[in-house]
Specification:
The structure is a single chain. The chain has a two-stranded antiparallel sheet. A two-stranded antiparallel ribbon has the order 2-3. The chain has one domain: ABC transporter involved in vitamin B12 uptake, BtuC (Orthogonal Bundle). The protein is globular. It has about 325 residues and is mainly alpha-helical. It contains 16 helices and 4 strands.
Length: about 325
C-alpha cells in the first residue's frame, strides 16, 4: 500500500477519476459529445504549456510568465500575418523563435544573474503583458487567416488534431526526461544543485535550457490559441500560468524540485480543465472559480508534502483490517 500511494502516477490518476465521476454525476451536460470535444480543445493548450512549467519546476524554479508571453506572441502572430503579409509557416516559425527568446531572457536572468525565478518571471509577467498592449494600440486583431482553424484544429480519423499534438509532445518530453542525460541532469539539479555542481554538471546551463523549453512550449500554446480563436489579443492567456503550475503540482511535481513525472502533468491538466468545465457548465462566477482552483493547488501541495505520512497511515489501516486478529473479530 505504501508503494502504491507513493507511486507518482497513481495519486494524480485517482484524483482525476474521482473528479471526473463527481462531475459526471452532478453535471448533466458534461458527458455530451460536444462538451467532451470542447474539453479536448481546452486541455490541449494548458497541457502543452504545462510541459515547460513542469520542467522548470523539476529544476527547482517557477515560471509565472507563460500567460503573458502567450498574449504577446498571439499579437505578433496575428499582426505579421494580417498586416505584414507574412506566410503562415514563416509566422509560426517566428513565434517559435520569439518564444525561445523570451524563455532565454528568463533563463539568463535566473541561471546566470542568479535572480530568483519567482522575481524574474513575475517581472516578465508584467513586461510581456505590457508589450502585448503596445501592438495595434492594445486592440485585438481578428480574422487573421481563414486556414488557421482547419490546419491546427481539424481532425484525423475523427480525432481532433490537438490531441495528436499533446500526445506527440508528451511522448517526446517523456523520452527526454526518462532516457537522456539531459533529463537526468534536470532531476539532479532540482534535487540537490550543490551536489550536481560537485558532480561536474552545469547547473546554470541546465536551468537556462529549462526556461528555453518553457518559452518554446508557450509559443506552441500561443499558435494554438490564435488558431482556435483566429485572432490575437493582449488579453489572452490570463491565468494560464496558474493553470500550468496547478497541472504540474496536481500531477505530482514537487515544488522543491527534483521529483515528479512529466506524464502525470497531463493528468493534472485534465483535472484542472474538467473542474473549470464543470464550474462553467454550472455558471459559477469567475471569482469563485479562482478560489476553487487555488484551494485545489493548496490541497495538491499538501498531499505532496505529506505523501509519506499518508502512505504509512493507509498501510497501517489496511494492515489492521487484514490482520488475523482483526479478521477473527470481524468473523465473530
Amino acid at each position: 500500500m505504501k508503494r502504491l500511494v507513493s507511486n507518482q502516477i497513481v495519486g494524480p490518476l485517482a484524483a482525476l477519476l474521482l473528479v471526473a465521476v463527481v462531475v459526471a454525476l452532478t453535471t448533466n451536460r458534461f458527458l455530451d459529445v460536444g462538451n467532451l470535444s470542447n474539453l479536448i480543445l481546452q486541455v490541449s493548450i494548458v497541457a502543452i504549456v504545462a510541459i515547460g512549467s513542469t520542467i522548470v519546476i523539476f529544476t527547482g524554479g517557477i515560471d509565472l510568465s507563460p500567460g503573458s508571453a502567450i498574449a504577446l506572441m498571439t499579437m505578433v502572430f496575428a499582426m505579421t500575418i494580417k498586416f505584414g503579409g507574412v506566410p503562415l509557416p514563416f509566422a509560426v516559425l517566428l513565434v517559435l523563435l520569439i518564444g525561445v527568446f523570451l524563455g532565454a531572457v528568463n533563463g539568463v536572468l535566473t541561471a546566470y544573474f542568479r535572480i530568483p525565478s519567482f522575481i524574474t518571471t513575475l517581472a516578465a509577467l508584467s513586461a510581456f503583458r505590457g508589450s502585448a498592449f503596445m501592438f495595434n494600440n492594445g486592440s485585438p486583431v481578428f480574422s487573421v487567416h481563414p486556414k488557421l482553424e482547419p490546419i491546427f484544429y481539424g481532425s484525423l480519423l475523427g480525432v481532433p488534431l490537438p490531441l495528436f499534438y499533446v500526445i506527440g509532445l508528451y511522448a517526446l518530453a517523456f523520452f527526454v526526461m526518462r532516457y537522456t542525460a539531459f533529463g537526468r541532469t534536470i532531476y539532479a539539479v532540482g534535487g540537490n544543485p550543490q551536489a550536481a555542481a560537485l558532480s561536474g554538471l552545469n547547473v546554470a546551463r541546465t536551468r537556462f535550457l529549462a526556461f528555453v523549453i518553457a518559452g518554446a512550449m508557450a509559443a506552441v500554446g500561443a499558435v494554438l490559441m490564435a488558431a482556435r480563436l483566429n485572432s490575437g489579443s493582449p488579453n489572452y492567456g490570463v491565468g494560464m500560468e496558474l493553470s500550468a503550475i496547478a497541472a504540474a503540482v496536481i500531477g505530482g511535481a514537487s515544488l522543491a524540485g527534483g521529483r515528479g513525472q512529466i506524464v502525470s502533468t497531463v493528468i493534472g491538466a485534465l483535472t484542472i480543465v474538467i473542474v473549470q468545465n464543470a464550474l462553467n457548465l454550472n455558471a459559477v462566477p469567475a471569482s469563485a472559480q479562482n478560489v476553487i482552483i487555488g484551494a485545489i493547488i493548496v490541497t495538491a501541495v499538501g498531499v505532496d508534502m505529506w505523501r509519506g505520512e499518508i502512505g504509512r497511515a493507509l498501510a497501517f489501516i489496511v494492515g489492521a483490517l487484514t490482520s488475523p486478529g482483526q479478521k477473527g473479530k470481524v468473523d465473530q
